[in-house]
Amino acid sequence: MNKERLVAFTDAIIAIVVTLLVLDLPRPDGPTLHAIIADWRNFIIYIATFFLIMVVWYNHHIIFTNAKKINRTTYWLNSIWLLLQSFIPFSASWLSEYPTSSVPGFFYVVVTFLWAVSFQLLDRNLEKLNPDLVMPNRYAFPLLYLSYLLEAILFIFIPILAVAVTPIMAGGIVVVSDFVEKRHARHN
Amino acid sequence: MNKERLVAFTDAIIAIVVTLLVLDLPRPDGPTLHAIIADWRNFIIYIATFFLIMVVWYNHHIIFTNAKKINRTTYWLNSIWLLLQSFIPFSASWLSEYPTSSVPGFFYVVVTFLWAVSFQLLDRNLEKLNPDLVMPNRYAFPLLYLSYLLEAILFIFIPILAVAVTPIMAGGIVVVSDFVEKRHARHN
Amino acid sequence: MNKERLVAFTDAIIAIVVTLLVLDLPRPDGPTLHAIIADWRNFIIYIATFFLIMVVWYNHHIIFTNAKKINRTTYWLNSIWLLLQSFIPFSASWLSEYPTSSVPGFFYVVVTFLWAVSFQLLDRNLEKLNPDLVMPNRYAFPLLYLSYLLEAILFIFIPILAVAVTPIMAGGIVVVSDFVEKRHARHN
Amino acid sequence: MNKERLVAFTDAIIAIVVTLLVLDLPRPDGPTLHAIIADWRNFIIYIATFFLIMVVWYNHHIIFTNAKKINRTTYWLNSIWLLLQSFIPFSASWLSEYPTSSVPGFFYVVVTFLWAVSFQLLDRNLEKLNPDLVMPNRYAFPLLYLSYLLEAILFIFIPILAVAVTPIMAGGIVVVSDFVEKRHARHN
């Protein structure tokens, strides 16, 4: 496998997915401020999903930059990860249409959760192939999974806040991991 | 011809085609589990088509990575291959709308079959230009064509299973070819 | 200007434009062979436009690969060329809806003609900056413009044949130019 | 951060955004010249927005080509910039539907203004990390913000002219900056 070509191909798919998200934002029903404010729930879902994908791109970028070796399994795990990712605009669009229902919310949690699991499998594959590649934060995935649980619970009570949980948690993990990595680098 | 630019251009088109597929997944008719399960046929068609394209990308990647020389004919064969590939979302979308009819199924088989034939022509062109480039599995294309025949027959009786035949067969060929290649590498 | 980044950006836009074309193919009105054959005009328009863009990509590729120097004017001429190109899916879509009317046909000719003119300006800019870069076929642009005239006339009488004129002519020019270039290379 | 991968990813998103713009051009209501001329306002909005994005790509290109160092903050500022950019097709589409109303016009000004602010933050981050990287024109951002104010005022009186203000002003700033940079280079 040529790592550069795989990474460029993956990035093109992520770029399209993140841009397709905006196509599902409903056009306001008139030329008034009221019409655009009426869609505030869709804006929150859009922005949260946009940042979730950006956080994950950042992590994908980190592990692939550091990895020197990849193999066929990497390709297939990356493909499964991309497949699950492709359901995100679909799932965000369903949620946007029924922002106060819990079933589309649970579906969104399930899709992004499975997407995170496939990312962990991809990460493990790369760590096995590149023993030097140790993720700085060993609590990253457990914390992420906890945030999905929290998100699922919130979808029962305050659906509109729920979508924001995972991007915030994932962002927090990136910041902490980065801090740990820097301290680690200073000590060695 | 600059191989890198051609490959990057081709990858961008494949990335868009594979992502457009998901746009044709119908949005569920309500915020219920029942509404999303009702579209299960579309999910199978989507996932099977996604993996078919991913298997083919893998092979395209292999032959272009190994090829050192390409010429103007390579470009045109690659363009025909891309044209046929661009009919896949169209054909998958038609099939999704009528998942139990056989004509859209046959059309899907014909499109993906012609796409495979154009890939074989592309492969032959590259093998001629690069005599070292021998595909490890000489049965790959005959087996692939057999799977299309099987798929066409299944579209008469159990349409929904039919779409899965070719990705599974193509995936199997990749695994076997890879195994043959490794054994071959060990012996030399 | 960084040539590589400009070329990659341009290629991404061309890849999206060529793939958006297929989105405008109307889905057949039923699961029958008759329904898909009813749209034969749209298929011809689609395939002709696809190949027209592929021929032009090939030429864009040639001049940019050979050019060593580019400047700010190159960027703006390339942007105008991309703007005109972005009207092609729009124009092909309008033509597809009224394949037997001549106004959408003339509009298609005007759009692709202006696109060719902007390409000639881009070519001249690159030839000035890179005196070594001489297009092998000095009749290429006059012949291309003649083909647009022919196409415009055909749109009055046999609209459906008209769209095929320019890709065939442009393809012919590529083949001839390539032949001239090879003979030229052999003589020097 | 790998600068090349970030730049390629960003370019793919810009390429998609600029191409999605054309999808919102309404198809003419018939095969007549009158039908296509009826949409002249949408063409102006489309062309102005296309050039605005192209001018900004040019500047993004300049600062990233010159910058040698980037960090995590660069990534997040770039992501915020991309998020705001993704609202441009949405906002241009709303404006296209109500080209004579001022609220969609103000929204368009606000979106492109915030987008410019996020670009200035990105520029400052890169200037801090790369002390050699000094933008040639220190009046660029104040002039740009002035043009937004002018545009907002014009949206009250002559909405259709308003969209053209910022691309023209931004283009002018590029030309002037370029001139200053060249003179500066000659003097040193």
Describe what you observe in this structure:
The structure is a homotetramer of 188-residue chains. With 188 residues, chain A is mainly α. Chain A has one domain. The first copy, chain A, contains 7 helices and no strands. In chain A, helix 6 packs antiparallel against helix 7. Chain A starts with a helix and ends with a helix. The model of chain A has no long low-confidence stretch (mean pLDDT 87). At the A-B interface, helix 1, helix 4 and helix 5 of A face helix 1 and helix 3 of B. Chains A, B, C, D: It comes from Lentilactobacillus terminaliae. Chains A, B, C, D: This is TMEM175 family protein.
**Structural class of the secondary structure composition of chain A?**
mainly alpha
Q: What radius of gyration of chain A results from the CA coordinates?
A: 18 Å
What share of the residues of chain A does DSSP label as strand, in percent?
under 5%
Distance, first to last CA of chain A: 32 Å
* Tally of individual helices of chain A: 7
Low-confidence parts of chain A lasting 5 or more residues at pLDDT below 50? none
> Largest contact between protein chains?
A-B, 29 and 29 residues
Q: Helix-strand pattern of chain A, N to C?
A: HHHHHHH
Shape of chain A: globular
Counting copies of identical and different chains, the oligomeric state is homotetramer
Summed over residues and divided by their number, the pLDDT of chain A gives a mean of 87
Characterize the largest beta sheet of chain A: strand count, sense, and whether it forms a barrel. none
The number of distinct structural domains of chain A comes to 1
Specify the helix fraction band of chain A.
over 70%
Q: Report the count of strand segments of chain A.
A: 0
